[in-house]
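Materials and Methods. Structural model of Branched-chain amino acid transport system ATP-binding protein. The 299-residue sequence of Branched-chain amino acid transport system ATP-binding protein from Tepidamorphus gemmatus was retrieved and submitted for structure prediction as follows.
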Amino acid sequence: MTTAANQAATRPRWQADPVLTVEHLTMRFGGLVAVDNLSFSVGRGDITAIIGPNGAGKTTVFNCLTGFYKPTEGMITMRRASGETFLLERMPDFRIAAQAKVARTFQNIRLFGGMTVLENLMVAQHNRLMVDSYYTLGGIFGLAHFRRSERAAVEKAKYWLDQINLTDRADDPAADLPYGAQRRLEIARAMCTEPELLCLDEPAAGLNPRESAELNELLRYIRDRHSTSVLLIEHDMSVVMEISDHVIVLDYGEKISDGTPEQVRNDPSVIAAYLGVEDEEVNEVEREVGAIDADGGRA
Ligand SMILES: Nc1ncnc2c1ncn2[C@@H]1O[C@H](COP(=O)(O)OP(=O)(O)OP(=O)(O)O)[C@@H](O)[C@H]1O
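The predicted structure was written out as tokens:
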């Protein structure tokens, strides 16, 4: 191996092969600086978590990545597996989804509750089907090309139903599903758009331990079998520490730590600034993330 190849092999993936690079991102709302000169990378094929206390700027970062907000300053580069690069801060949100292949879910569930579970997955493929039907004419005349696309869309929807264990509920209204299943359906719906980067805003919020374990399994499956990079905002430390390859910690809009879960959970600035300042509170959180054991000894 050459020296350069050696160095690439030992560097973490977020440095050696980033799918997303955020440079000097700043977002101001009037006098409030929600995100302040933030730089980080997301490794291709990694699960990356952004954590931080309430109001740290996590959702604002997501809103900048997905075109919801135009950042005040900074550059956001998406590198697709094909080698194409996209400057997301210059693109409207629909192009970020369709061309740069970035999909997202929101903190609050945004399914079409009155539509069936299967229909929710078909709607996600609407744009592709519209193009393949030559904007409905092909559909009206039943062109073979459109029929093939329609069959492929149904197959893809069924595939994801199977992956989220909801095949039996395909014809039920999405609103009738238990909360955890609705969360998984949202992720499946985003996956039907074949993203290369999947952004999830607090996917574990409100889940019970069994649903949380199912979510972890689904996210690992997406990473391992679909080579989709996952970027998530999460407050549930057990989820973050268990499934993330890379963790970025924000506080007051600035990055205070960036590394593997192991590095971040042992970083004193994270314990002090992010997790609270009271000794007892710190111990409690350290126990939760596994940095110390039940007796207070370092893990
Ligand atoms: N559209 C907006 N207009 C004005 N201020 C905003 C807007 N969006 C966010 N903010 C402010 O920016 C700061 C960061 O908010 P943000 O929602 O990004 O934090 P967060 O880390 O996602 O918090 P949480 O964990 O509570 O969701 C907060 O002070 C918030 O009030």
